[in-house]
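Example (one chain per record):
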Amino acid sequence: MVEVEPSTIATWITITIMAIIASSVATWYRFKRKIKALREFIVELDEAIKDDKVTEEEFRRIWQRFKDLIYS
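Predicted structure:
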């Protein structure tokens, strides 16, 4: 049977906990970035349709922002 020192076990537990925390923080920041992009998309869409006239340029810009939002 292989004997493992308690300090080695504690080190692995610490590394595992740190990895979980780092992953959670990264996921949170990706989520916040996605929500911000969605909010900006909605604001731009709202501005474009306020006057009931969406120009082709506005449409292309909004469509590109929508694709960026979905595929990023």
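Caption: Residues 6-71 form one domain.
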